[in-house]
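In the previous chapter we treated chains in isolation. Here, by contrast, the input contains three separate entities that must be folded as one system, with a combined length of 679 residues.
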Amino acid sequence: MTKINDGIVTSYRQLVSDLHTHNHYYHVLDDPRISDVEYDGLMRKLILVEKQYPQLVKKDSPSQRIGGAPLPQFSQVQHAVPMLSLDNAFSAKALRDFDRRVHERLKGSENITYLCEPKLDGVAVSLIYEDGILARAATRGDGATGEDITSNVKTIKSLPLKLISDLPPRLIEVRGEIYMTRQGFEQLNVSMKKSGEKPFVNPRNAAAGSLRQLDSRVTAQRPLSFCAYSVEQYSDSGSPDTQWEMLRYVGRLGLRINPDIFFAANIDACESYCHDLFTRRASLSYDIDGVVIKVNDLEKQKFLGFLSRSPRWAIARKFPAEEASSQLLAVDFQVGRTGAVTPVARLSPVFVGGVTISRASLHNADEIARLGLHLGDTVVVRRAGDVIPQVVRVVHGRRQENSTVVLFPKFCPVCQSPILHLPSEVIARCSGSLRCAAQVKQVIKHFASRSAMNISGLGDRLVDQLVDTGCITSIVDLYDLSLSMLTPLERLAGKSARNLLNAIEKSKKTTLQKFLYALGIREVGINCARLLSQQFASIEEIMAAREDELLAIDGIGPVLAEHIQMFFANPKTCKVIQDLQKKGVHWPLTAADGVREIPLYGQVWVFTGRIESINREEAKSVLQALGARVSDSVSSKTSRLVAGKAAGSKLKKAKALDIPVFDEKQFLQFLEDIQTTDI
DNA sequence: CTACCTCGAGCTCA
DNA sequence: CTCGAGGTAG
């Protein structure tokens, strides 16, 4: 490290500022003021100075864009405001319905205007700037929790590391899309092919793949772009009144916003903009999958509020899915865990909607009949909702003379047992139960899965192998596996076999909830399993539960109750449960063994408003661990309401029903108390 | 459903 | 180097 003086500091700062400015001109405004060679010269100079005076380097230095050493993994981050998805409108009518709903909720306000913008096909990210410096970038994840991809995002040149402002907000969270232009994608693939690497299949996957790199130096080489579309939180005076003003403000801060944004005076203007954009789709420099339409007035947005998973003030007008024709090569009949027989079309591979489709579910016999499928038919396929492959229809007039109609089998293709099709159900089922190898395999896969017994290393391929070779015939057999049985199998020499046995051993220690879920009772998912494990003290109680006891549980209806009773009425399944316990599968005891351990047993808690100091999901699981059920709505059964900031109707209702209420502070104190007294 | 990244471990060939 | 498992994303 060389000694530093004021002159050096000043000229270094100038250099940093110049680079930021030119970067902005080039990447955000598309209006370069100096040549690439000159820019590179400045950058080289910067790196030289930083090498000599490393103490100068700050988080926002343009040199940070070259990417740093690989991360061991991405860390998890909680979103302060959840990242929701948008409701979709697949037709002009659906869009008008949206407009009608908005008007109904905003009765009295006449002029509702909208802001339309292209919906980029990329990866959604959240950016947090603190005092104008990019502090954190995260993926959407499940909406509540995402991954910290800051080091990768910093390498994106169209995204400022430092906001352009003399007085930047102390904190601002901007959301937007990271994507790749078609040109960038083409060029990248050329160079990938040149270096012998596999090219990406579409720009979206290229963008997503680039962001998933642990080594941000790789990401730095990828032509990623960023475009902002919303602001979630900011601390600043003079807050904007409209979505449009907000975006312009973000633009002034140096973030790129979409130049094709359109202000619409009414919903018809939105629809014609969508139509226009759809016709121009191919000539755009980036891929889009629709148009996002938002109520422009922020006050109105706030008033409209949210549905469970999406805002009521915005919608994605999706373009009709791209269609392509393919040939029906065959229909496979897959047998699921419960014996459900699902027909799956095997198609000649066809590139549509950015991926190659070669299989598509046909759902059930009715669907086959609706399509009137014959083997070898030419069919139209698309990606419904832009994800799920779907056979749309048969192309008539192209059918082979002697082609055979697709028949739903009468017998299971795996075990030859009769397939039963109850008139009351759409789904046909193989009657083989556990005599059917396909069902056995699916049962085992489900049993081993992450949210069930969590036996890591026991994947699809291995289960197939174990069952096919006769090593195991049931979930119980898993616990009798030994090294000598595994070693002869493919790819299971030495280490893998030991790892698997360890994982199986580890799975013996579980929870009642996971065990119940693992059993694979029809209609009993992870949620229902939790209800059962909370309401009953032991598996024996659940096995013996009467129908009325089951129905008394909020969330369990007559169908579920019958499935549960049917399941445990079968002596074979009872034997399996006993055997598993004999092999050492166990879980901590709950209710009956000590009310102390579940102090909130039987209580129903509800949250409302914004809770700031603790993540709501976390609070929920703490309460559940204490034995409470957490519900979404207040009723007479509610034991207590936790009201955060800006609580609304739920608080009112709770007061009306005389239900005790905690504010955030009281709630935290309560949690603290209960945890200290209990241990 | 498809595509992508990462990891550990096995297989292959030198 | 290749494979399978496990994770992510839309």
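Residues 371 and 393 of chain A are 6 Å apart (CA to CA). The first helix of chain A runs from residue 6 to 28. Compare these points with the single-chain example from earlier in the chapter.
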